[in-house]
Design goal:
Layout (H helix, E strand, L loop, with lengths): L3 H16 L11 E12 L8 E11 L3 E4 L2 E9 L2 E10 L20 E12 L2 E10 L7 E8 L2 E2 L3 E12 L1 H8 L18 E14 L3 E11 L2 H4 L8 E12 L1
Antiparallel strand pairs: 1-2, 1-13, 2-3, 3-4, 4-5, 5-6, 6-7, 7-8, 8-10, 9-10, 10-11, 11-12, 12-13
Keywords: Cell outer membrane, Membrane, Signal
Organism: Agaribacter marinus
Protein name: Structural protein MipA
Length: about 250
Amino acid sequence: MMSNEFIGTLLFSAIAVAASPPVLAEEPESRWGLGLGLVISDQGYIDVSNEVTPVPVVYYQTENFQLLGPNFSYKLAEMSDLTLDFVGQLRFDGFEEGDSDTFRGMEDRSGSFDLGLSVGYQTGFGDFSAQFITDATNEHKGNEFSLTYSTSYNFETYNIKPYLTLTRQSEDIVDYYYGVRSDEETQSRALYIGEATTNVELGVQANWRVGQHHNFITYASYTAFGSEIKDSPLVDASGSANLILGYMYVF
């Protein structure tokens, strides 16, 4: 199911805000840190209750490279306020048959490692980004395109960053994680072939920095499912919600 690992990926994106160092007279060539997050999640699958999961985090950053847990980004180009990054993201969406009676008799759905490109553009009224990633491990065999707008409110010791993301998931992704195959069909679980859909995510990240090393992170989001996910017989909710509380020590 989309639980521990999927929301762990969300934690890494929240940590990125927290790990940004304060402005120093001379920036270090690299930074790294260790942290732990507590994740509370409801992913919308039938008969799957909220989960509370501890997630360890390892962080490492140089001028062009950033590692956040299993995710990485490498800056390919930068021109004024425009950046181009090569990104890798571990997708742990999926479920095992034993996770719920809902999945009894179904084949497990596995996660994947996705690779792609991300373009970011900073303006005076917020940041815009576009990202395209595709399955590099031949699991769901799909791709995903997202557009994000965010704006940061920076104070002396803390930062608040609301954002809005539109994500277009391909037919292969939706069918793999939310579809029901012909040999999985039962009287209570109809055959379902997923098609491409668009999800809308609204969230906020908040970071409180204590000195140069201690960072406390809060991350809350709600994702409204597209119709092709909501119509799945595996889902009984119109969206998913996540709350993350975390701490990181940056060396």
